[in-house]
Amino acid sequence: MIGVLVAGSVGLLFTLFATPLFVKLFHRLQWGQFIREDGPKGHHSKRGTASMGGIVFTIGAVLGYFVACLVTWDPPAASGLLVLGMMVGLAVIGFIDDYMKVRQKQSLGIGGWTKIAGQVVVASVFAIVGLQFVNESGVRPISSSVSFIRDLPIDFMSLGVIAGTVLLVVWIVLITTATSNAVNVTDGLDGLATGASIISIGSFGFIAYWQFNQLCGTPRVASAVEAACYDVYAPLDVAVAAAAIVGALIGFLWWNTSPAQIFMGDTGSLGLGGALAALAVVTRTELLLVFIGGLFVVTTGSVIVQRIYFKLTGGKRIFLMSPIHHHFELKGWAEVTIVVRFWIIAGIFAAIGLGLFYAEWWSLA
Predict the structure, then answer these.
(1) What would be one Gene Ontology cellular-component term for the protein (predicted)?
(2) Taking the model in full, what pTM does it have?
(3) What are phi and psi of 23, to 5 degrees?
């Protein structure tokens, strides 16, 4: 528990006090936000706001994690390193995209397929590296099975090592690209993606800590609830990593909330999406991500539905603009109102996910 508290505190303090320094640096480097011409007119006033803020909370999260390891004398474990590695890897892809926008002085950076190719590479490395570790109980950070709240009876390795490994990598790539792009799409209003990510990543931190307290083969698990214990790899380390990210995001939100003094950019949104995907994989709750990150699913779904309807009807639209938060902007809702209400929706989705997680444990215990 000390490690969780230290990681969150260090991440929070770093971003809370360091973000203004990064804002000044980014302005000096002329790393300002470019606004899409077809976006809401009210966003044009945000042009030039410091961007690439994902750099700040990514550094804060990594710093919080390693300081916690030093304070508690617990060496970093593969699970936590994989989560942070995925976050950093996709943040680098996002940084390249953000830097190209600044360099070309437009709202478009690297091509969509190039960005996806980078996500595929990072997710593939995550999957392959995760299969190389195993603890004394024979448990790996990454399971070869599809999971919901625990592993389901769908094991890719039942098809053979080669075919199973390929399918597992493809599965993790799909989860990663979908989640990182969903967070990226949601990042359209001041503080929206930051607050929603705090809720979702914090939920996975709770799940990881619960798994630590109910870990199979430990004295903490009473014989009466052995049937409900969890076979996961270093869940406390995952909880520490999640706490470091949440703490860093809370400190960043102080400066990112409306009116934002800094935007996270693709550097932040892709990195956070990667962290969410990694947390779902290492906690064996991949399909539960649909509930925990429900707001991201709804936001991305609004874009997909809008495009399909537009093509089928020859130019008609369901929403005034997608993603759906822009629809409410054009209907006259204040930006802060939309953000807070969407945070509430994110919280409801996360509560449903956590409720399902606990209900499953309770039914077995």
Answers:
(1) plasma membrane
(2) 0.92
(3) -60, -45
Domain ranges of the chain: 2-291
The CA angle 59-60-66, to the nearest 5 degrees, is 90
Return the pLDDT at 142: 95
Taking the C-alpha atoms of residue 357 and residue 165, their distance in angstroms, rounded to an integer, is 27
* Mean of all residue pLDDT scores within the chain: 90
Q: Which residues touch 260 (CB under 8 Å, ≥6 apart)?
A: 46, 49, 190, 191
Question: Which amino acid appears at position 95 of this protein?
Answer: F
Q: For the packed helices 192-213 and 294-312, what is the interaxial angle rounded to 10 degrees?
A: 130
What letters, b where the CB count within 10 A reaches 16 and e where it falls short, cover 258-279?
Answer: eebbbbbbbbbbbbbbbbbbbb
pLDDT tens readout for residues 291-340: 999 999 999 999 999 998 888 888 888 888 889 988 888 888 999 999 99
Residue corresponding to tokens 């606990």:
358
Known binding residue 266? Answer is: yes
Sign of the dihedral defined by the CA atoms of residues 30, 36, 42, 43, in that order? negative
Strands 145-147 and 151-155: what pairing? antiparallel
User: Pick from 168, 178, 177, 204: which is nearest to 89 by CA?
Assistant: 177
Q: Give yes or no for a contact between 50 and 32, defined as CB atoms under 8 angstroms apart.
A: yes
